[in-house]
Specification:
This protein is of the alpha+beta class and 148 residues long. It contains 6 helices and 3 strands. A hairpin with a 6-residue loop joins β1 and β2.
Length: 148
């Protein structure tokens, strides 16, 4: 008798419970970085400037439950809006599963360790600053190219 497959393999994103959906987040913090869009090309550029609610050490939102009320423009990612969020990094668990790809070995669901995303060098840990530390004008000067 074979063991049951993990939920992220056996279920589609649409079939996942709320807790399963939340577990797909690897905790990298990349989606919490300020992004700039080129109005002419539509290309999105990541900066090293994080949302004021992002804990720069754990790479988790400090007030996840109330983030949408506190941060204008914060996105509540769901199965229904996945197609509209084409800026998610190539390493994002939601993007990978939506594209029919497996999660990386460093993903906490696969590794069994919450900090594996940091040890793999995927997260923003130690690589960004809070938006409270820079002016809005300075953000344009902080584009980074380490996000894929």
């Amino acid at each position: 008798m074979s063991a049951a497959q993990p939920f992220w393999i056996s279920k589609s994103l649409q079939e996942m419970s709320e807790s399963e959906w939340e577990a797909v987040c690897d905790g990298c913090g990349l989606c919490c970085l300020n992004k700039l869009e080129d109005e002419d090309t539509g290309e999105v550029y990541y900066t090293d400037v994080a949302c004021r609610l992002l804990d720069l050490q754990s790479c988790r939102c400090q007030d996840y439950r109330h983030r949408l009320e506190q941060v204008p423009g914060c996105l509540s990612l769901s199965y229904d809006n996945m197609e509209d969020v084409d800026w998610l990094p190539e390493t994002c668990g939601y993007r990978l599963l939506a594209e029919g790809k497996p999660l990386f070995d460093w993903h906490p669901l696969v590794s069994g360790r919450e900090d594996s995303v940091h040890h793999a060098g995927i997260s923003v840990q130690g690589r960004c600053i809070s938006e409270t530390s820079v002016s809005e004008e300075e953000i344009e000067e902080r584009i980074v190219y380490w996000v894929s």
